[in-house]
């Protein structure tokens, strides 16, 4: 006798989508969230709520944002984001390692899943300011992302928990899943630790949606490599790889890039983990395409303007980690200060400001001053001054002749006041995990489904390698969560 038809492990976006979809199949569902209720929601709750979906311009955006005003429409170029462009982006940023079946499943289901979320109470808005700048009175969306969930990640998760309550889903907080119970022919439930006491929950199907291993220092050092134990965790402290380990223990196949992670340039002195109650978003340092990044030697080490932020930020955390002593400084001048994201102005930023570059680098005490001044002077001399700056497009305003050129948005750094911000590496989530098929069955090493076991979200391997296109994480969690829940519901209710 099962306690529930389906048990879902995890309490973030992927788990909630799975739980809702399973309940909609008619299954009785329990959701097991390791965090206490007040910290529920995983990394999903920390997000800005951005979703990357296929769309063909204003008509499609209006379907998702029904109260889009005529004034907004008049001042905005939403562009379009075709399935081909989405697949190209996924292929390009992952160096074509992405599992093509998973890529197609994500892309083909993206728009429909956004509509499905709307039907469950999630409201979406256009992401002005972050995905489109006000440039000469007009907004132009760039980088494949237009919408975000109202209220960001917190709003998204809140709406999803509300829907879960409406669907009669049982939620257990502060409950850590520790093992999958495998019976003779299929999965039969999970073991959990609740208030220090081990219990077993019997179920006909189990969905794992409990995140990657980014919050385990030990696993970071073991799989990502030396130095990664020192990275700051941007989000939840509860994702310590449990779901991956539990599945491997019963024969699941490891898949994807276990040495890879989404990691960004992040406030250098941020706390070790994110804190949903604090100013967790203060750590963002995503405006580097408009400035320079230098290391302790005062040298640049990435092409800050290689592409839109959406396509570079997730790999530049690793680049910072690999610098001497794993820090860097982002440097801006007066020409671009108004474009810096709000987080640069928040309390807690390690920031210096000066009226000359000499004074600035004196304040950046751990940077080689001569090296820095040489870098900026060489850079300024290499800037193509006759190309117009445009933050909403790859403007081709570049440097010429440097060993490491800047490809776009290469304004000179010469107009006072100057500001510099110190950054370290902030890890978001890990790329390696379990192998699933497009129906979200967890596969064993012979590529056969483990009966009754499904997975979605960050613990799925095979989607992201080396890099990641911004706002694909929530979309993937929702698409595969919905599929996993539906598959689990059907499996559990099959005669
Ligand atoms: C600061 C920040 C900003 C981001 N911004 C965006 C964005 O705008 N757009 C986007 O697409 N992505 C964004 N991301 C990435 C995004 O958070 C993830 O891709 C996505 O949330 C993953 O969802 P998930 O449900 O798989 O994992 P999570 O939301 O992390 O959920 C995992 C859940 O599992 C629970 N758990 C862990 N172990 C156990 C266990 N043993 N038993 C029970 N429960 C367990 C955790 O408590 C948690 O509730 C951002 C991430 C961060 C940190």
Explained architecture:
This protein has 495 residues and is an alpha/beta fold. The chain is built from 13 helices and 22 strands. The strands form five sheets. Strands 1, 2, 9, 10, 11, 12, 21 and 22 form an eight-stranded mixed β-sheet that branches. Strands 13, 15, 16, 17, 18 and 19 form a six-stranded mixed β-sheet that branches. Helix 1 (13-24) runs parallel beside helix 13, helix 5 packs across helix 6 (100-119) and helix 6 (100-119) packs across helix 13 (472-493). The longest helix is centred in the C-terminal third of the chain and has 22 residues, at 472-493. The relative contact order is 0.20. The model has no long low-confidence stretch (mean pLDDT 96). Flavin-adenine dinucleotide binds next to helix 1, helix 2, strand 10, strand 19 and helix 13.
- Regions with little confidence, pLDDT below 50 for 5+ residues: none
Question: Main sheet, how many strands, which sense, barrel?
Answer: 8 strands, mixed
Q: Overall mean pLDDT score?
A: 96
Helix run count: 13
Q: Please state the overall shape, judged from the principal axes of the Cα atoms.
A: globular
Helix/strand-derived category reads alpha/beta
Distance between the termini: 15 Å
Number of strands: 22
Q: Give the distinct bound molecules.
A: flavin-adenine dinucleotide
Strand content: 15-25%
Helix content: 25-40%
How large is the radius of gyration? 23 Å
């Amino acid at each position: 006798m099962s306690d529930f038809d389906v048990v879902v492990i995890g309490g973030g976006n992927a788990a909630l989508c799975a739980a809702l979809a399973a309940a909609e199949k008619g299954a009785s569902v329990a959701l097991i969230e390791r965090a206490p209720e007040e910290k529920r929601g995983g990394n999903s709750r920390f997000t800005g709520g951005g979703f990357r979906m296929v769309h063909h311009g204003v008509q499609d955006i209006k379907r998702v944002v029904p109260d889009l005003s005529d004034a907004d429409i008049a001042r905005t170029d939403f562009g379009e984001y075709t399935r081909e462009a989405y697949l190209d982006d996924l292929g390009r940023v992952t160096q074509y390692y992405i599992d093509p079946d998973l890529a197609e499943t994500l892309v083909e289901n993206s728009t429909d899943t956004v509509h499905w979320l709307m039907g469950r109470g999630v409201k979406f808005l256009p992401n002005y300011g972050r995905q489109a700048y006000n440039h000469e009175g007009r907004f132009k969306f760039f980088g494949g992302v237009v919408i975000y969930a109202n209220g960001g990640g917190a709003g998204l998760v809140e709406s999803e928990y509300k829907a879960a309550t409406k669907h009669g889903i049982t939620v257990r907080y502060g409950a850590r899943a520790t093992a999958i119970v495998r019976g003779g022919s299929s999965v039969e439930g999970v073991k959990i630790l609740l208030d220090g006491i081990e219990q077993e929950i019997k179920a006909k199907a189990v969905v794992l949606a409990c995140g990657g291993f980014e919050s385990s220092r030990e696993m970071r050092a073991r799989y990502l490599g030396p130095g990664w134990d020192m990275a700051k965790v941007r989000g939840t402290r509860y994702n310590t790889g449990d779901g991956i380990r539990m599945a491997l223990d019963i024969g699941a196949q490891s898949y994807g890039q276990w040495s890879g992670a989404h990691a960004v340039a992040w406030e250098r002195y941020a706390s070790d983990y994110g804190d949903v109650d604090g100013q967790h978003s203060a750590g963002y340092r995503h405006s580097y395409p408009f400035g320079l990044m230098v290391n302790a030697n005062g040298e640049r080490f990435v092409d800050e303007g290689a592409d839109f932020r959406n396509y570079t930020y997730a790999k530049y955390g690793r680049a910072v980690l690999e610098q001497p002593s794993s820090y860097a400084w982002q440097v801006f001048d007066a020409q671009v200060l108004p474009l810096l994201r709000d987080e640069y102005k928040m309390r807690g930023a390690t920031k210096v400001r000066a009226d000359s570059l000499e004074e600035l680098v004196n304040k950046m005490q751990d940077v080689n001053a001569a090296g820095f001044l040489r870098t900026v002077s060489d850079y300024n001399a290499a800037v193509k001054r006759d190309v117009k700056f445009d933050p909403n497009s790859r403007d081709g305003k570049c440097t010429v002749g440097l060993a490491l050129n800047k490809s776009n948005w290469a304004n000179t750094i010469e107009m006072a006041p100057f500001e510099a911000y110190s950054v370290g590496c902030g890890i978001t989530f890990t790329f390696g995990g379990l192998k699933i098929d497009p129906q979200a069955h967890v596969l064993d090493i012979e590529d056969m489904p483990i009966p009754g076991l499904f997975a979605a979200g960050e613990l799925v391997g095979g989607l992201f390698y080396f890099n990641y296109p911004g706002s694909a994480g929530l979309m993937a969690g929702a698409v595969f969560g919905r599929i996993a829940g539906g598959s689990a519901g059907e499996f559990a209710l099959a005669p």
